[in-house]
Amino acid sequence: MTAPISSEINGHTTTKRPLPCGIYAPTMTFFDPETEELDIPTIKKHAERLAKDGLAGLVTMGSNGEAIHCTREEKIAVTRATREALDAAGFTTTPIVVGATEGSVKGTIELCKESAAAGGDYVLLLPPSYFRAQMDEEAIVGYFTAVADESPLPIVLYNYPGAVAGIDMDSDLLIKLAEHPNIIGTKFTCGSTGKLTRVARATDAKTPTSEGSGYMAFGGICDFTVQTLVSGGSGIIAGGANVMPKVCVKVWNLYVEGKTEEAIALQKVLSRGDWFLTKAAIAGTKQAIQSYFGYGGYPRRPLKRLEKAKIEAIAEGIREVMEVEKSL
Length: 328
Fold this sequence. Notes:
By secondary structure, the chain is α/β, with parallel strands linked by helices. The longest helix has 34 residues.
């Protein structure tokens, strides 16, 4: 597949598949339970289910996608399969954001180019962190600037301190990086709504009621969807949307429609259910999908498989929110 056609709008690079406001899922990567090889049919089935359930876009090879456990060839195969599944199901305009972080500038640029060729529309990038002691602000700015200069795809910054040895990009740094025309958003998995508010305001981020500059300020967890909207955010990229996408979308839509009290009430149900997934991480999210949708399986080792009692506790913990999910 050819790389997306790029253009400039309001100073920011865009592709032929714009990023709409709304809910995105960082999709799980599914493996054969015996061999741990990629399970491409299930990857495709999952992508189609999420699109049909109303998600605005998908993120492949993020943290939930076990990117750290996959080779570069597997990352490209997953992205290509996801694009093929969306197109075959009629979701040709649904954008794909690809996790394309590598340790070096050179490697990251190469993966950005390969992601474009595989059907990706944007890339999601963590700051480099292996040599943590040397990763001061100058090094981080240099990394993102060098990659942004060469990447054929626009970049969404990924602020997730837990995955990068505690590196937590502050609002001043994120606003500075937003000046680059090929850096078009941030995912705030740090959970700081104050930081999101400051960045969204400074960048005139896109919201459901305003196109703004086109910059995308994404909340990184579905348990603060309403809070993200209040803060001037553009969307949510949340692991919980793999399990209860319809509820995530419903919370978003209720608030956008002005039904604030209903949105807040449903947010509370969503936040409670999502906590069981957050605690159980990737293995738990996959088993929640297994319990309610009949597929899911296990993560790659060294992540552990959950015991039966833990699986049952997760299924029970999310029962309330899943009853709402099944009713929508």
